[in-house]
Amino acid sequence: TIKSTAISLYYRVEENLVKDLKDTERNFLINLIDSPGHVDFSSEVTAALRVTDGALVVVDCVEGVCVQTETVLRQALTERIRPVVFINKVDRAILELQLDPEEAYQGFVKTLQNVNVVIATYNDPVMGDLSVSPEKGTV
Q1: Structural domain of residue 58, as residue ranges?
Q2: Parallel, antiparallel, or unpaired for β 82-88 and 27-34?
Q3: Whole-prediction pTM value?
Q4: 133 lies in a domain?
């Protein structure tokens, strides 16, 4: 059976990384919910989104933005959740497709452009600019 899986991670920010935080603000409990990407589990994705502060959207660098990726992004944006994109399976670009660094980079750029098209299509203007890019720390 495919179902959502949750895990909790404890993280403490070191003082030398962020000096403006009080000692009591340095501790974070991060709850990750891995929800199935299959279309039959859209309700589980929606339920997971309703208890989260953010969404980590994993995109295969070879497959790119698939129909279900678009669906999950739309669900996140509908719930007013800010997405962060993770480009996965980079090894496939190198080993299977044997892309040189420039070709791989151009493939990543195209993937991010496609993600941003989906975001622009479903974004609520109240949320502001949700486009993703490495410069913004959202990839």
Answers
A1: 5-126
A2: unpaired
A3: 0.78
A4: no
